[in-house]
Amino acid sequence: MKQDITSARPGGGFYNLDSNYYRCTQNSKTGYGASLNICKVESIEKNRFEEEKTSCIMPDSKYKYGLHTLDYKDGICVVDGLKYIYSPMLKIKRKLSFFK
Questions:
Q1: pLDDT tens digits for the chain (100 residues)?
Q2: How many angstroms from the chain centroid is the CA of residue 38?
Q3: Residue 15, class by beta-carbon neighbours within 10 Å (0-12 exposed, 13-18 middle, 19+ buried)?
């Protein structure tokens, strides 16, 4: 079982490229799902799992609070990023909903 905070949490499924298996992992060292790693699977056995980080994907300014998922299947790529939106009207709506 992996316990490394930089690569233990899955960030997508396994995929095969050029006869090698890869998986995305969340790097939560600086915060929950702060960035994603692409890891090459080196060994999968009953009592052993080894992988090597091949690259890191950092969030861009639009989703600067984190990347949680990168997955690909049937020609579709999905990315899950985190951003916060400040909305004064939303604050007012929440306060008014208290009185309903």
A1: 678 888 999 999 999 999 999 999 999 999 888 999 999 999 999 889 999 999 999 988 888 888 999 998 888 999 998 888 888 888 888 888 877 6
A2: 10
A3: middle
- In angstroms, the first-to-last Cα distance of the chain is 49
| Alpha carbon of residue 47 to chain centroid | 25
Q: What is the pTM of this model?
A: 0.76
- Alpha-carbon gap, residue 97 to 57, rounded angstroms: 40
Sole residue written with tokens 């020609």: 75
**Burial status of residue 68 (CB atoms within 10 A of its CB: 0-12, 13-18, 19 or more):** buried
For the chain, the structural domain boundaries read 9-97
CB 22 within 8 A of CB 11: no
